Structure formats: C-alpha cells, structure tokens
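#onboarding

Welcome to the new folks! Below is a worked example of what a typical request in this channel looks like: someone posts a single protein sequence, and someone else replies with the predicted structure as tokens. Don't worry about understanding the tokens yet, we'll cover that in week two.

Example request:
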Amino acid sequence: MKVLLHICCAPCAIYPLKVLRSEGHEVTGFFYNRNIHPYQECLRREEALRIYAEQMDLKVIYQDGYDVETFLQNVVFREAERCNFCYHDRLKSTALIARRGHFDYYTSSLLQSKFQKHEMIRSIGESLGKSYGVPFLYRDFRQGWKEGIETSKRLNMYRQQYCGCIYSEKERFFKTRR
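Example response:
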C-alpha cells in the first residue's frame, strides 16, 4: 500500500516511518507546516527532515512558500480552537496531495506525540478521508515516543521544544508573574 505521511518534524517521523515500513507500506513524506513560527524555526525543521529523509531514502514532498499569515488569520480571536484549525489544515492538505498522487492511505506523524489531541486528529482525518476519497490510516504511534527521542538524539538531529505555532512558543517561554 502507498501511504502519504504528513511530517511535522523529523524526530516525530522516526517511529511512524519505522512502523509503516515494517507493515510493508511504501511511504512518502509530506512536509506541510505553515503554522510554524518563526520562519527560521520552520527552516530548521525542514533542514533536519531533508537530512533524515536522505539517510532513510525517504521521498518527501515539501510545501511551497511560507504562509503563516493564513494560519494566524484563521485562529485570531479563536486561539483556544487553534489546534482544531491547524490539524484540519494540515490533514486536508495531506489528503488532497494523497488523492492527486493516487495514494492508498494518508496519515500524520502528529500521532507520535503524547502532547497532541489524538481523538481530534483521528476524527478530522477520517472525515477528510471520506470527503477526498483517501482513507485516513490511524495508528497510535505514542508507544514509540521515547524511541523517537532517543534515536533523534543519537543522530544529533535538530529537536524543537514546542509544537510550532506562536501560541505554543509563548506557552513554552512565558511564565506568569505572581
């Protein structure tokens, strides 16, 4: 089966790629992350993925441009729902590429993180899969979370410390004064 794997970052792709390949799937990556802020962070994540993809002989489709404005315009005044928009945007773009590329399934490396909202990702992915005619392949990759971290450290891979959007960056650094 041909599977298109949305990749949020190289460290999160390690375990899903291993599992999908071990199941006999032909995997292609798709790097689509217009929510990443700042731009230099997006470039660091993309470069880390390019290096890893070459090491793993993984073909990856990279998004064109950097359209953080659209992400911000869609979540402003709805910051509490930003993850819903972000997941929908990423998965919809992946489903569209999967349909155009005649993939059998699509999925996401977001499912590797214990910090992501799995039921929301699954629900959105399955709904979009029905709409676009490419089934969403749900796998709970969280059991490989530590393995992905250890492997990424061993490979001296760039590892980010926040989800990627400006809001998660703030949550990482800003602590309220008491």
